[in-house]
Amino acid sequence: MAQPPSYTLQQTDSGDLVVALGGSWTLHSNAPAPDKIETAMDASVGRLAFASEELEDWDTTLLIFLKTLITAGRQRQYEINLTSLPSGVQRLLTLSEAVPEKTTYAKTAREFLVTRIGRLTIDLFTQFREMVSFTGEIVLACFALFSGRSPFKSRDFFYFVQACGAESLPIVSLIAVLVGVILSFVGAVQLQMFGAQIYVANLVGLGMVLEMGALMSGVIIAGRIGAAYAAQLGTMQVNEEIDALRTMGISPVGFLVLPRMLALMLMLPLLCIYADMMGILGGSIIGVTMLDLSLTEYLEQTRKTLHLSQCAQGLLKSAVFGVLIGHAGCLRGMQCGRSALAVGEATTSAVVTSIVLIVVSDSIITFIINL
Question: Which is it for strands 16-25 and 6-11: parallel, antiparallel or unpaired?
Answer without folding.
Answer: antiparallel
